Each structure stands twice: as C-alpha cells, then as structure tokens.
Amino acid sequence: MAVRLVYTLAPYSLQNNDVADIAHKKIVLGVTGGIAAYKAAELTREFARNGIEVQVVMTEAARALVAPATFQALSGRPVFSDLWDARADDGMAHIELSRGKDAIVVAPATGDFLAKLANGLADDLLSTLCLARECPLIVAPAMNRQMWDNPATRRNLEQLRRDGVAILGPASGDQACGEVGMGRMIEAREIAEAVIGSLAPKLLRGTRVLITAGPTFEPIDAVRGITNRSSGKMGYAIARAALDAGARVTLISGPVSLAAPAGAEVTRVETAAQMFEAVKRNVAHAGIYIGVAAVADYRADRPRRDKIKKTDRSQLELQLVPNPDILAWVAARPRPPFCVGFAAESHNLNANADQKRRRKKVQLMVANLAQEAIGSDDNEVTLLDDQGTHRLARAPKTAVARQVIAHIAKLYGAWRRKAG
Questions:
Q1: What is the mean pLDDT of each run of 10 residues along the chain (420 residues)?
Q2: What is the pLDDT of residues 88-137, one digit of tens each?
Q3: What is 208-297+320-409's CATH number?
Q4: Residue 228: which of 69, 358, 346 has the closest Cα?
C-alpha cells in the first residue's frame, strides 16, 4: 500500500488577492532528470486546464527522458533549457523567465537538484532561475529510496524548509528501480491541487462551510434501490474551491467514486435520511451551507430486508414516500447559515430555479441543465440571487467552482454585515 507524506504549503503573500479565480496566473514549471519527468507532462496539462499559463524549463537530463516538444504542445509555449538562450529579452533567460510569475514549481525535483537549491548553486538555467526568483518556490521530490533516506538529502530538505521553500511529498510505493519505499513523486493531480490552493485568494479564510455532494441511494430491497446519475464531481469541486479559499470544510458525501479533497472533514452516507442526520449534527457550526447533493426526492415506504424474487407477475408496485428537504430545513432554522442551493433542471432553467430559491428562502441558487452537466467534467451554470441572474460560461467544473465560491464569498460578506 502506498503511503503519502505531503508537507503543507507555506501561506505566501500573493498580489491581486481580490481576484477570485486562479485563471491568468503564471508559473514556471521546472522539470529535472528523474524518471518521474513523464508525470510532469500530465501536470502541465492540469495547470493549462485550469487557465494557468505554464512556462516549462527543462534540465539537460530531463530532455534525455522526455522530448521538449511534448511540453511545448501541452503548454502552448516554447520550452527553455539553455542558460544562454537568445530568445529571451536581453539574452538573460535566467532573469526574464521568472519575472511576473506567481510561482516556480519543480516537479520532479531530483536529489541532485535539491542539493543545488539548498546550497545556492546556479550552474544551469533552472537552478539560476530559482536563485534569482522573486516568487514562491515549490518542489516535488522524486528519487530512489536510498537517496531519499540519505542524511545529506535530509539536511538539504531541512535547509530548504528554513529558506521558505514548499515541499510536496514524496510518496511511498513502487519505484522505477524495482524497489518499494519512500521517494516516488506524488501524482500530478495532487501537485496541481496544492499549487492551485496556494495561488487562490483566501476569500473565506477561517469560515466553516458545510457541503453535501453526490447522489443518495434509497434501498428497495437487499440489492435494488432508487438513485440518480449524479457523479459528485461538482460538489467535490466546490469543496476543493472552498478549501483553496481558506475555508474549514465539512463534506457530507453520498456514494461516489471520487477521492476526498485533502483537508476536508468527510462523512460518507448512503441514504437521504443519513445525509439529513449528518447535516443536523454539523449545521450549527457552519457559517455557510452549500447543498450540492442530488438528494432523492422519494424513498420506498417499506424497503425489504431480502431480495424481492422475480415472479411471473408483469408488474411490481412500490409505495414511495417523500424524503426530507434538507436545504429547506437548514434555511428555516432560527439562526440559519448563509444558504446556497443547486438546481438541476431539464427546461425553463432560470424560472424554475428562481422559484425554488424563493420558495426555500435561500440566498443563492446555482442552476444548470441536468442533461448537460450530470457526469460531465465541464459545467455551465447560472447564479440567481436577489440582485438577479449571473451566467457563468461553460468551463471545467473546477474552474466553475472557483467562480461560484468567489460569488458566495462576496454575498456572504454583505449578508454578515447586514445581519450585524
């Protein structure tokens, strides 16, 4: 079993903290000569998908493992590796490439490169960039387990921490040399989440946010049940965006096949009744409640303990009873949190969603067409509040979630001031 060791990123002071989305951020991605360099291609794609401009800088050893053309195709920008590259303004690539960047990320960071950083050596373009930087430096180590355990590596890592360098990973698991142990680079998705989280403005710093996500499953008998096609992707993206905004997130999740967002307190449930009970246990501490879960409206009146056997009868009648309306219950509390609902409609999107918002007396309703959003990695939503409607263009759910959280943060601040 792989075991992860991930160090928390330092709380950097970033400019433009009033900008909600991390789109238009710019980073240098340094790729050194570890076999995990192939993972850097996926990392480049993850950054690009989130609207981050990526400038790849490779060491000569990295070029021997992965062709620069791969990174140029994924980033849409030429790859640099030569300290004397004449393409940079004034012929000073080691200065120009890092100017105006929000971070330098080195993944993989080999033992050799970590030693350079710890001792201030600058004998190639990437190490010189890191020494001459004016932005945060984040490294994701990757090396053989003996190299990771070597006292020299330990000393270098301790020095880097003292210097304010953020260290992500590594993980324990199978290594290219055939051995098993600590030293393999954490996955590209984990690195991307950590970096994006460090770049995101902390619009909800310290706020307790309670989120429900995914479908519910209402049993009919021992094997059958009533559910829906919700993947939970939007709810989990909202949780990730809230965490990145500095919130303390409690996520109550129906049955999904998604990895829990790192940093969230997760409660897993199956039925609407279980989700309702979990909400009741946690809502008193929440400043914001976001109901993203696709909760089944009905459940079987008397679910069978055993499997219903198939017979020659052509019909099977089920008596259904309504499930509790969790969002309406939260909004009707004597001292409710700021409430956000999600409405998946099949037609008359804005009218139906706004009617639901007014009926349940919630501050914000996020609406989308169910047939276009369920199961997809992208989403297109409309935000409905007392000021009107605000349409968000179709984008990856992670990007949409950040925009939704930014809008929630703005409304929440005004709501709190009004409440006194």
A1: 39 35 86 95 93 95 96 96 77 75 96 96 94 95 94 96 95 78 90 90 95 96 92 96 96 95 94 98 97 95 88 77 97 97 89 94 92 77 94 90 95 88
A2: 666 566 677 888 999 999 999 999 999 999 999 999 999 999 999 999 99
A3: 3.40.50.10300
A4: 346
At which residue do the structure tokens 């609902």 appear?
341
Helix residue ranges per DSSP H, 58-171: 60-63, 68-75, 93-96, 111-119, 125-131, 145-149, 151-162
- Indicate the angle between helix axes 233-244 and 188-199, nearest 10 degrees: 50
All residues at 6 or more sequence positions from 327 whose CB lies less than 8 Å from its CB, including other chains:
289, 291, 339, 341, 360, 362
Among left, alpha and beta (phi > 0; psi -120 to 50; other), residue 206 is left
The structure tokens listed for 196 are: 């994006």
Tens digits of residue pLDDT in 245-270: 999 999 999 999 999 898 999 999 99
- What is the dotted CATH code of the domain comprising 26-199? 3.40.50.1950
Domain with CATH 3.40.50.10300 in the chain: 208-297+320-409
To 10 degrees, the CA torsion angle through 92, 95, 96, 98?
Answer: 150
**Annotation says 177 is catalytic:** yes
The residues pairing with 36 across neighbouring beta strands, listed in sequence order, are none
Identify whether the C-beta of residue 100 lies closer than 8 Å to the C-beta of residue 135.
no
Active site residue: 130, 135, 177, 339, which one?
A: 177
Surface-to-core class of residue 415, CB atoms within 10 Å of its CB (0-12 exposed, 13-18 middle, 19+ buried): middle
**Cα(2)–Cα(53) distance, rounded to whole angstroms?**
32
Classify strands 180-184 and 208-213 as parallel, antiparallel or unpaired.
unpaired
Q: Where does CATH 3.40.50.1950 sit in the chain?
A: 26-199
